[in-house]
Amino acid sequence: MPSASHRRHRAARPERRTARASVVSVVALAAVALVVSLVVAFRPDGGSGEPAAAPAASAKASASPSVSAEPSTASPSPTAGKKKESVSPTPTPSAPSPSTSARPAPRTPAATGSLAGRIRPGASYRGVATSYDIGDGDGACSFGPSSDVMTAAMNTTDYETSKACGAYVQVRAGGKSITVRITNECPAPCVAGQLDLSREAFAKLAPLSAGRITVDWSLLSPATSDTVSIRYKTGSSRYWCGIQALGHRNPLARLEVRTGDGSWLSLPRAEYNYFLSEQGTGCGGAIRLTDIYGERLTVEGLAVRAEAVQGTGVQFARR
Hints:
- Strand 9 and strand 10 form a beta hairpin.
- The strands form three sheets. This protein has a six-stranded mixed barrel with strand order 1-5-2-4-3-6. The protein has a four-stranded antiparallel beta sheet with strand order 11-8-7-14, with no helix packed on it.
- The chain has 319 residues and is of the alpha+beta class.
- It is 22% helix and 24% strand.
- The chain has seven helices and 14 strands.
């Protein structure tokens, strides 16, 4: 038998085909054609040339992206639905939050207590009373030394950045009642509702040995023959000034100064009870005071005289 290499060598040589070889070739080709025809005839796809499962697979692939691209449109998210239900029924609180500094909107003078802060006219508060030695009578309100011993320090919460300064409060305990003026602040551990009374004031309600008693207290608009005075802080000039009102019957809600164009500018109140004009606006000009009942008093003609107490001749009405 010829070797493989020998066969390849012979196949490369040109030679004449015999008649017998031609017949064999024709028969072989016919057999191959018959096999191919039978295979094609019995294919499941009818001889299309494409796999039978290909159309279904293609349709599934083309449908998948449309479902995953926008899942929220086909079916609302359960989480979103719960969020809506939990937010909508929740009522909005009517009272301002403590992390905020909201105040009641100013109204006309007829709206009693509309400008008040935490301490409101006509309301009664329950708390405790303690006592302390007031010394020369001065305190956080910066009123200065005083011989008046019927005073009290207000807890920080109700002191409200000096808004309680100068307020008169009626205190009741054990069938007894006294009136004190707020001149100081009582920091922690004093709690909301607590009053730290002068020793003299406390002794009118209970023995000092009691140390701590339960009291009810409320805002008071007392009878007085005094009128309001104005004092400029040390260092005040026409370029910067601090203004304080003294002797007002009712708590102050605002202190305003007249600007160059005739409008009124409300000054911010410091915790030491002075209203500050940082840029000097209105220093030495007209001053307008508003109490928590909405009554306004306008004072003009006062010069910038640091630490001088200047009378005004006006006073808020008794309520």
